[in-house]
Amino acid sequence: MTNIAIYTLTSELHDEQAETSRTRMFLDAIGVEHELKGADYADYGTHALDVILVRTGGTEGLFKRLLPQLQRQGGGRPVYLLASHTSNSLAASMEILSYLRQQGFSGEIIHGSNDYVRQRLLMLEQVGEALCQLRGSRLGIIGQPSDWLIASKADRAAVARRLGIELVDVEMGELMKVLETTPETMPEEELACECVKQALPGAQHIYGALKTVVEQQRLDGFTLRCFDLLTAVKNTGCLALARLNAEGIVAGCEGDVPAMLSMKIVQALTGVSGFQANPSSIDPEAGEILFAHCTIPLNMVERYEFDTHFESGMGVGIRGYMKKGPVTVFKVAGDLSRFFVAEGVLMENLSKPSLCRTQQVIRLNDKAASSYFLTNPIGNHHIIVPGHWAEQLSFLLKQ
């Protein structure tokens, strides 16, 4: 089923049948899967992407009368106008967009070569699908943010208003209760050392308990005050988070809410949660950054090994090796007022004993972007995802 719906605006002075024939030729040349709705706007606003094809000139008055319905049904989303190269389509679209701007509404004219229009429509569809996934999501904050995350708070109202995400508080005690009643299971994993072998059943136990909490609270993701587990049960949540992320449940570390929101946005666009990591060292002249953390989604790596958690020497940490190649580094502020996104290349996976277990050397395409980390960072954790996604992430957060 297509997620692109195309509606039409046609002047009464033009022959409807002739315009319909030209419309089909125009849309066939663009080559995107779509549903042609024509002049019936009854379900406008219900698709990932709704587009109005301005087929002719003389349609400005028709659009003006239609606008209240579009805003009511579209919930204030941008109005996308598709303009062809004939019948004064572009001229009418420009007048319509000018009127939209005067009324305080946002919009865009999609016009150009067939290839440009195709790529633009597919990108807008992708972002629209991601926004649909985000709306109605419930993300848990299990145990509140770690004490050292003094700059990593969230504006719940802004998150709900702009992304449709509900943030849900879950007491750490709830997880502890579930841990007490969740049966332990013996994992069938290849082990790295004796200390990890002893810790693995407990790490698996935490995974089972967190999965139960997710089900009980109807969560689509969460961030965990994971360091509390070190004192409470002498183990870590690294393995649990790695597995849950691979299963499609966004699972972040240290109770970092902006990082969790960033991961959820990334997942909605790309299908993977991303690697939540700290910059450990930066070479501003080369634009290279070494990122590290003790867990990574298992569906993001080519292979992985078990080790202890770096800071504590306890539990089970994950040393994951991601495929070298294009990556995107991303972080959004907790009030959604700003974000950072930069594309680069994963150059190397390291295994230094003096850092968290998963380590990635990333070279940014724009060397100057590395200055952001030293002059105006959004907290410490950032999200790394395979592929180049800067355009989609930027567009999504400007909606």
Walk me through this protein's architecture:
The chain has helices at residues 16-30, 60-74, 89-102, 114-134, 156-163, 172-181, 194-217, 228-232, 238-246, 257-270, 371-375, 390-397, and strands spanning 4-9, 35-38, 49-54, 79-83, 107-110, 138-142, 166-170, 221-224, 250-253, 275-283, 288-293, 303-307, 317-321, 325-332, 339-350, 358-364, 382-386. The chain is α/β, with parallel strands linked by helices and 399 residues long. Strand 4 (79-83), helix 3 and strand 5 (107-110) form a beta-alpha-beta unit. The two termini are 24 Å apart.
List the topology elements:
Blueprint: E1 4-9, H1 16-30, E2 35-38, E3 49-54, H2 60-74, E4 79-83, H3 89-102, E5 107-110, H4 114-134, E6 138-142, H5 156-163, E7 166-170, H6 172-181, H7 194-217, E8 221-224, H8 228-232, H9 238-246, E9 250-253, H10 257-270, E10 275-283, E11 288-293, E12 303-307, E13 317-321, E14 325-332, E15 339-350, E16 358-364, H11 371-375, E17 382-386, H12 390-397
